[in-house]
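Lab notebook page, bench 4
Experiment: in silico fold of construct C2
Operator: M.H.
Input chain length: 308 residues
Purpose: comparison with the prior construct
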Amino acid sequence: MQPIISVSGLTKTYASGFEALKTINLEIRPGEIFALLGPNGAGKTTLINIICGIVNPSSGVIRADGCDIVKDYRAARAKIGLVPQELSTNAFETVFAAVSFSRGLFGRPANPAYVEKVLRDLSLWDKKDSMIMTLSGGMKRRVMIAKALSHEPKILFLDEPTAGVDVELRRDMWEMVRSLRATGVTIILTTHYIEEAEEMADRIGVINKGEIILVEDKAALMNKLGKKQLILHLLDRLDAIPDELAGYRLELSGNGSELVYTYDAKGEGTGIAPLMRRLSDLKIDFQDLQTSQSSLEEIFVSLVRASP
């Protein structure tokens, strides 16, 4: 399957000498939800802006649905919808007029029925005649998404789309994202809410200091890098882990009241059964136990810390 977005050898160095992107190679699959994660200043927005033709690359080749974003800019840009971080809408237009005008900018013929569908899908239809300046921040964010969808793009970039948005609206937006993906639209998102990426994305990319440090299917990433832990709540505190337990990956927490065992849930044997027998032999009793697994946020933090 041909990638719908192909980035090869992309670099970006500004006149000041700052190297924002360092040899980025990335392929996005048709119809997937791809989450791009990275700390502030990692290069997420620069990468998106270059793919969308807003910022010029220093070197490299980028194609959107087969169209070179430099040599065939108009055709490439017509394939892409972008919802930027900043709220930048004409405050003195009505919602319907703004979305209709945005459609015309891409050379698409007028289609009031399609504009109506987009506004209804985003719960904006009852605001169609309202001036954008009168809307709440969350509603303005919805208008930005409607404008990005106005020309029926095959690729949709969402750069921090739920920043500053209430929980209910965030939930509505992700329902919309799922419905768009069901129609074949490819979605690339950046988000500071890592639980959203964990819930929504098919694949995860992590960027740090201008370099892609990992691209992985979400499930594979969680299985490969996620830690599984057994937490034993002890009846009596321990001052130290007995030497007889040195062969296990154990640590004390909770001021000595918890014994934490880290293990590979996918391994041939977890080691839990022999650990339990050993604890019994040593007369170490516990009153409760629980298991936990690393979240995507914990994996992300560990990856960023480990990158040079």
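Observations: The chain has a mean pLDDT of 86. The chain has two domains: 5-223, 227-294.
Next step: discuss at group meeting.
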